[in-house]
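We were asked to recover a plausible sequence for a given structure. The inputs and outputs are reproduced exactly as logged, with field labels preserved.

PROBLEM: sequence recovery
POSITIONS: 509
GIVEN STRUCTURE:
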């Protein structure tokens, strides 16, 4: 079916297709930020189809998203039964028995001529100075189960970190729905069975529901999840497949009960054919085994996960399929894909919700001047390509930086040919401990350093600047720093105590 829409007309009506995390984040942001300029926002979702139902661990940037929308943190945490997150613990990645935390914060204390890890590398060659983790306040606090928001005084050790959240994804979408509807978003329930396009320009003009109702729009945001209803099924954007670097293509997920205090970090434990996530919330723990179906079948993976649960399962296991990769163009004509419809690089490092946030931010920055705005589309696609490629390389690093040779899966990822962009980064770090600089995209230096050193990529040389400090002075200042970090961390409240005071969910029991 075709209908008419003027390509040069202004955008007055936005249709968001899908009501998962992507759909409701988009609708909430557009309602709060763009609707006041005279734009109407409609969201269409189907309860019968439902959402992917996972996606509970985030990156610190989400705080800026919530703040921009004017969302109160304590209220949001109560509603989503959220906990705080200071980083991700990686167990058994470089070698079985290894453990490190990728922190949301810096190593060392503020100041210093060379990046801190160069001093640590030098000191390590002089004596036993302990693991790099001992020099990160968020890591030490995370290990002790402690949390308080960072201090504002930039000279304080307590200012050296950020934090994110671990929350119930279904409750987050519900919370944003309430917010978005209060800001004028109209929600339409129903399954979309047809998408209409302008006969001449090919621009999308409406989505048609099973009931026959047509929801018309000028701009369409495809948040339909892996189905990619508009961007792929209708507009045939294409897909760039990265599964040769990222072979995990399935996940089995299941929440379980917990009688332990929730720790302020997510755990990723490497298993025989992938890895297991553990995300502690106020009322339960989210678990999953992300695995490569070429190396283990779903039944064996499910059994392995169930055997490792720390508490009683709260649902039946949910198996999901995906392919690591990105939509070839995230913005085609008058359709922008946000969320899983735009691609997925597997959940290690919790980047998917971040990519949703980034896409929304860029859509608002590059808001189209007309229904068809190829300039905005081209720039959006360029920027999203960079974002995806940065994350892709960082995730691949976790697999290739390993000595594990205990299963065919680890043999595969250990010796696979890497993207040139990642091979260059690793060579640079191995040679001189430097992290390749870039302006756009994740991740910051401490993240790369955490994974390089945590998984056994040790530089041949530390920076010459780190030689400026006499040996004795270096060793004693590191000992003092370790003590100061330990003491500062131990003065923080436990996360449980902080949550109880600040944002305990009434029914989190
Ligand atoms: C195992 C796993 C673990 C993950 N863990 C994390 C994590 O820890 N952190 C993180 O950041 N991300 C994580 N993710 C990704 C995260 O789950 C998603 O980015 C997030 O949930 C957004 O999904 P979505 O809204 O794009 O899609 P969905 O949740 O699938 O929503 C799609 C929506 O489209 C609607 N829809 C589809 N077709 C139609 C139709 N025909 N008519 C009407 N409506 C339709 C559906 O009803 C639904 O409302 C994980 C993903 C997986 C697979």
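RECOVERED SEQUENCE:
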């Amino acid at each position: 079916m075709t209908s008419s829409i003027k390509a040069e007309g202004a955008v007055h009506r936005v249709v968001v297709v899908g009501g998962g995390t992507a759909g409701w984040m988009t609708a909430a942001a557009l309602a709060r930020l763009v609707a006041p300029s005279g734009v109407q926002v409609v969201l269409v979702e189907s309860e019968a189809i439902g959402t992917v139902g996972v996606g509970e661990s985030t990156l610190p940037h989400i705080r800026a998203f919530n703040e921009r929308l004017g969302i109160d943190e304590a209220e949001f945490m109560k509603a989503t039964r959220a906990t705080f997150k200071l980083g991700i613990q990686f167990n058994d990645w470089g070698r079985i028995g290894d453990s490190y935390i990728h922190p949301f914060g810096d190593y060392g204390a503020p100041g210093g001529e060379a990046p801190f890890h160069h001093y640590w590398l030098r000191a390590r060659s002089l004596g036993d100075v302990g693991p790099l983790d001992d020099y990160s306040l968020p890591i030490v606090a995370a290990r002790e189960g402690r949390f308080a928001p960072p201090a504002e005084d930039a000279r304080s050790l307590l200012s050296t970190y950020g934090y994110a959240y671990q929350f119930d994804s279904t409750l987050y979408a519900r919370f944003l729905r309430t917010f978005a509807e209060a800001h004028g978003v109209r929600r339409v329930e129903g399954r979309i069975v047809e998408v209409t396009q302008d006969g001449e320009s090919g621009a999308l003009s409406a989505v048609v529901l099973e009931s026959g109702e047509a929801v018309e729009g000028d701009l369409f945001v495809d948040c339909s999840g892996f189905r990619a209803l508009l961007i792929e099924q209708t507009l045939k954007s294409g897909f760039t497949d990265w599964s040769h670097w990222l072979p995990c293509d399935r996940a089995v997920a299941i929440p379980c009960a917990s009688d332990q205090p929730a720790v302020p970090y997510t755990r990723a434990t490497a298993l025989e054919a992938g890895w297991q996530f553990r995300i502690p919330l106020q009322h339960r723990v989210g678990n999953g085994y992300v695995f490569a179906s070429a190396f283990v079948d779903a039944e064996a993976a499910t059994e392995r996960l169930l055997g490792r649960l720390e508490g009683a399962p709260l649902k039946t296991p949910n198996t999901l399929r995906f392919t690591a990769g990105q939509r070839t163009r995230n913005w085609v004509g008058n359709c922008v894909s946000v969320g899983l419809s735009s691609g997925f690089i597997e959940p290690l490092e919790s980047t998917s919700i971040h990519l949703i946030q980034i896409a929304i931010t860029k859509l608002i920055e590059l808001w189209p001047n007309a229904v068809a705005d190829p300039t905005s589309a081209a720039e959006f696609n360029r920027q999203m390509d960079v974002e995806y490629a940065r994350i892709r390389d960082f995730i691949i690093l976790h697999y290739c930086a390993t000595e594990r040779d205990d299963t065919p899966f680890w043999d595969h990822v250990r010796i696979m040919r890497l993207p040139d962009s990642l091979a260059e980064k690793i060579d640079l770090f191995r040679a001189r401990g430097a992290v390749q600089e870039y302006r756009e995209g994740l991740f910051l230096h401490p993240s790369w350093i955490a994974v390089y050193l945590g998984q056994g990529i040790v530089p041949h040389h530390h920076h010459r600047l780190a030689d400026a400090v006499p040996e004795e002075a270096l060793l004693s200042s590191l000992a003092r720093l370790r003590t100061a970090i330990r003491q500062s961390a131990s003065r923080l409240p436990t996360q449980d105590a902080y949550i109880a005071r600040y944002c305990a969910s009434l029914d989190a029991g």
